[in-house]
Sugar ABC transporter substrate-binding protein
Amino acid sequence: MISRRRFLQVTGAAVAGSTLAACGDGGASSGGAKASSDLKLPTYKPFEGLRPDLPGAESGLEPGFLKFPADAVASVKAPPLKNAVTALTETFATPPPPMGSNPMWQALNQALGAELRLTIGTDPGYPEKFATLLASDSLPDLMWLPPNQGIPNIGPMLEAKFQDLTKYLSGDAVLEYPNLAALKPASWRTAVVNGKIWGAPIPSTPFGQVMMGNPKTWAKVGGLQCKTADEFFAKCKELSNGTNYALEPAIVNMLHMFGEWFGAPNTWRVNQDRSLTHLYETDNYRAAVEYAAKLWAAKVFYPDLNLADATPKTVNGQIAAQVVVGPRATADFRNLDPTLFVDTMIPFGHDGKAKPVYDMGYGTVGFTPFKKTDEGRIRELLALMDYLSAPFGTKEYLVKNFGVQGQQYQLDANKNPVLTKAGTQQAPGLVSALQIMNAPESVIFNPAFPDDTKKIYATEQELLKYAMRNPTAGTYSDTSSKLGPKITSAFRDTIIDIVTGRQKMDAYDAALKRWKSGGGDKMRDEFAAVLPSSVPVTGS
């Protein structure tokens, strides 16, 4: 299970002010970014072997399944491998038992046709492990490239060390690998650098952060949903008493929610003249910072800024609301209290009149490039990627995520796969590592609580009414890759100081000036130079 806070970092979910295009290219000046925007993406052909109970949509609405399909269908014709494959990936669970003592891993190898030998990194430390292997004389066949863990010089690194896969995946060429063709164009854009496709993307929920609250706690003040920022403020004050608090202490994430209510853009705003205005430069975001400072002064935030995970305290009522990634995160709370279905805040205008926004997330957790090799090996590795991208409900999905029936999983009364005792020991760390390296498009599925699937689906429909996507997602800026995380972190430090009263609001302008001169203005120019004409205007 990926920790909540770490998942926010790894997915590139729409955290306020984040530089989501952190997998930058070789720079707009080199023409790489323009080439990326001109590339013909892989042809999208949805998998037709399964029909969800609740259909998805191109808007980002995720398909919902009320139970696992009764007759899992095969999505590949034959085992993909004839030779062993080495790969570097990461797990956010406890590392699994090694291959030699892990029957589930051995069963996967049997299904693949040869051994998949994984080197599994953990958090923290993955970028260091990546750099060590990159500098060695012997790269693994596959190396997961995370979207925003600070790995530098992505474009030159890919050109020097990894295989250009464009001719195998661009346009109709991808149809040779049906499960890869079932990945959406928005997912593929994140694997395009310098006008070339470098690997299979790893889709995640397209939904960004949401505020969730314990309904038992919020019932005391009339529920979580609000119509104005003043109403929310009053409810928070009533719920906070020095022992219990309305809000978790992740200030930047909470501030992201407030920004939506004040109409702040999802990272960048596209103006009528096609210029870009950054989130930090808007009056909307500045107003959200002032509002957050007002809430902090009212002592409604949990005071320990180092709290690693608010979920247990939200479940027990000590914290009333926290920020998570996407409506499907309700399952994290169910895991701690099976009786609890948390509420998801629907954005509202801060004054009851203004139009709110909802920031959609980046939708992937990076991509997995191949080391340079010959054509036969490339096609073998692509077949492996195709197998590991098998959609939900297929036989290959079951093998990858649950193992072998009667060994790692059994079917419950509703024919849903449930891990056995052996499965709970062998699967989590392995599944996490495999999912980080390769995954199908996401679905809504909670077999123990099928009604949750319906509720989450309805919540996604509500959020999509206000959806705003980062207009630069899928385009690249070399400056964003190299300097974005550093200047964003410095700006956020000042914001946290302002909210917590350590600095006055006038420190905002000085921090913004440093952000702009430190790389923000250059990022703006690079993104604007390659902004597709199809991206709509979002500001005046």
Summary: The first strand starts at residue 64 and ends at 65. The chain has a mean pLDDT of 90. The radius of gyration is 23 Å.
